Structure formats: structure tokens, C-alpha cells
Amino acid sequence: MASTYWTGGTSGDFYNVKNWSTGASPTTYHDVTISGTSSTATVEAVACAPSATAVPSLTIGGYGTLDITASSCQSSESSPVFSTSAFQVFQYGSIVIDTPSAVQLGDINVMSGTLTIENNRSNVFMGAGSRLNGDGTVNLINSTFGSQTASINVENSMHITLSGNSSMYTGFLTTGVSVSFDSKSSEQFFLNGSDKAVDTKFSGVSDKTQFGITANTGETPLSASYTKNADGSYSLVVQESDNHTLTLNSVTMASGYTPGKLAITQDKSGNYLISDTSANSGNSGDHCGGHGGHWGDHDGHCGWNGHDGHSGWNGHDGHSGWNGHDGHSGWNGHSGWNGHNGSSTGCGDHGTSWGWGWGSGGCDYSSSMQQIISSWNSAFSSCKGWQPSNCGGSNWHGGNSAQAGSAWNCSSNWGQQSGSHGCFSSSGQSSSHSQTPVIHNPSPWGC
Question: What pTM does this model have?
Fold first, then answer.
């Protein structure tokens, strides 16, 4: 089987033939490999242009990174901006998906490195079986992985982190899998309700964390409660219909949090959400009381005017608010810039709305600002008029130097914060990247 290896001799563009050992497009070869040699000699390729041709087999070796930043409003599961039939990521290797568009990761995968998904809502797909297999890490940042009808099965010793208001839909979880939550933002983790005892270790659980049971598993949760274990952790016991019990045996709370009474509600898709009722005590004024208290969260229950403020910026049904999910006027209402069915320039779904933030269960302004910045990026993405040009112009091979960023017209986001390695780069390195910083995009305009 023919193979080609990344050299990065010309630029960071994944599709530039001059960056490959064979001098031909990587999509014409069965095996495509991106590898570095050490923590001070990393390599990084960027796929920032949509491609209709799948890579048959993708290997990310140690100290290698593939950033997928291509964007297209017309992308879908059947026409993704990037696709591979199979992939493997070795230790210290990473794939970073930083695009709201569709990406197909294929059927067979082995992970000892890192898969990071940023700013993507249920638009990263896997093949038959939808399995993550190995001892690597999946980082979700302001993203949703899986869906009600396409859950992700997690095997062996995989570790999953959720931050920035992320959600994950899982099928089965094998013993050895671990999950950690960011206690400063609202995260959702959906389980298969037909399971009985789940030994996955959950950590960082807070009043903002919601465990969920997907509606299509055939089980209806009737009650849920925590019991404390001898080692200081908790078990979450969910009593379901048909005398069925689902138990999460190892739940560790975030520092300073003691769980209270739990309530079970349903979201708009019929999925069941298990929430701490202490997170739903909204007040007027600046206090954000609900677990969904975000400017742009489609289930946001608390805006500036309280739990269900109908005239606030974020009333769940605020009819004149900037960001009510069903708000009928304003910048981000039903027909605003980026609402659920926005008829103007927005092309995102209801999960990518303009103004996330203002914490929940208490106002976390640092987290809020991060979410607002992320939302600005989405508002001015290429789906809304800003188009990427090309992928970097410098030699991306190795280096300890700092990133040099361009200012406009890059990646899929305008004003992207630290972390995009598409066409735009800011002065700091993304928290999702463990690689040594490299120079890219020295040009002050474009790419």
C-alpha cells in the first residue's frame, strides 16, 4: 500500500503537494502520516480548505498535529469538509477539529494521543459502531459530540474532558473510561438508560453538571439521588421504569460542592436531564440562577432579569430579548442574527447563538467573557461572509518560537481567540494543544 509522509517543506497546508514526501496530494495515497520527532521538533498540518475526497487511512504519529479548520455552510454528514475512512493517533500526537462544519472520522480508530473538538455542535461523525478505542483523550470545548440518534461508544481507558458548555452522547462505557467536567461551565453527559452499573469515573461534577438519558433508549427515569461512598465519592442512583436501576458508581464532586436534591426534566428533543435543583433558584437582577443561564444557550433559563425573565436579554421565552430561544425580535431571537431559525445572515443552529455566558448558578464573569468571545467568532465565521484564503505561509516544521498571527479573513472565525491553527493565529497557544508553539501566518492580512 502506497504511503506518503508530511515534510512541511513549504507551508502548513495539508493539501499542498510540496509538503509531502511524494510530492503528490495526500488524498491519492492509502496511508498518510504526520509525525514529529520530539517535543521541540513538532510538526503541524492544517486542513483549512474543504475537500470532497476522503483520506483512506490517516496516522498522526508522536509530536504531530492535524488541525481541521475548513468551513462550509453546505457541509453535512454526506458531504463533510474533511473525511477519513480510518485514523490512528499515537501518544503525543493530536487531531484538532476547530470548525462548526461537518467532519467524518471513519470506522476504525485507535487513540493513544488526543482528539480535540472545538466550537462544533454534533457535526463530527464517526462510521459504523461510532467507537473511540484506546487510552487517549478526547477534549470537548464548546462542542457537542454525538447525538440522540448517533451515540459514541467509548472503550478501554479513554479519558474525556468537557468544558465551555459542552455535551456528549454516549452509548456504552467500558470499565477504565474516565470523564472530567469543568465546574465553571454547564456540561451535559448523556448515558444509555438501559445500562445497570457504570464504573466510569466522573470527576469535577458541580451544580452546573447535568447527566442525561437519551429518549430513544426505552427507559424513563423516575427519580435520581446521590449516595455517599466510603471513599468520599458518590454514587448516582437513577430509578427507571420497569423496575430498572441505573447506577453511576464513582462520581467525585468539584471542590466546595455538596450535591442537593435532584430533579428530572426533559429537553426539547425529549431527552431526560438530571439536575441539581439548587442550580435553578433564579433571582432578579444580576444573579444567574438556572443551570442553563447563558446568553446563547437554547435552554437558557436565566438572563439579566431572572430565571424566566420574559423581557430580559436571555429569558427562555423572552419575546423581546436579545437572545430568547423563542424571542421574536432582537439580535439573536427567532429571526435574528443567529437564532434557531434565523432568517437573516446566520447559518448556525440554535446551539451556536451569538451570546453565551454569564455563568449559571452564580455569575462567573471570566467564563462569560470566554463564551462571548467564542460567540463573536461564530457570528463572523465564513458561514456569514468571511472566507478563508489559504493555510499559512511559513515553514511549520519544529521550532520554539512564538506564534505570529494574522488579523482578518482566516480560518472559520473572525477574531478567533487563542487556539485556532487555521489561517488565524493569536498570540497565545490553545489550551487544547500540547505541542510546542510554532510560527505560522506572519502576514498581517489574510493568510
Answer: 0.70
> 23-56 pLDDT, tens per residue?
999 988 889 999 999 999 999 999 999 999 999 9
Q: Give the burial string for 112-141 (b: 16+ CB within 10 Å, else e).
A: bbbbbbbbbbbbbbbbeebbbbbebbbbbb
- When pLDDT is averaged across residues 369-379 and rounded to a whole number, the result is 58
Cell numbers describing residue 183: 465546574
Q: How far is CA 422 from CA 376, 382, 445, in A?
A: 17, 12, 14
Instruction: State pLDDT tens for residues 99-142.
Output: 999 999 998 788 999 999 999 999 999 987 788 999 999 999 99
Tens digits of per-residue pLDDT, 74-83? 999 999 999 9
Q: Which three cell numbers stand for residue 1?
A: 500500500
What integer is the mean pLDDT of 320-342?
41
Q: Percentage of residues in the chain with pLDDT exceeding 90?
A: 55
C-alpha cell recorded at residue 52: 470532497
CB 108 within 8 A of CB 315: no
How would you classify the pairing of strands 234-240 and 221-228?
Answer: antiparallel
Concatenated DSSP letters for 270-331? S-EEEEEGGGG---STT---STT--SS-TT---BTTBTT-TTSTT-TT-TTSSS-TT-SSST
Cβ neighbors of 141 (< 8 A, separation 6 or more) are 116, 117, 118, 119, 163, 164, 166, 431, 432
Task: Look at residues 57, 180, 120 and name the one whose alpha carbon lies nearest to residue 420.
Answer: 120
Distance CA 202, CA 206 (A): 11
Residue bearing cell 431572572: 306
- Say how many C-beta atoms besides its own lie within 10 A of residue 65's C-beta: 27
Separation of alpha carbons 444 and 441, rounded Å: 8
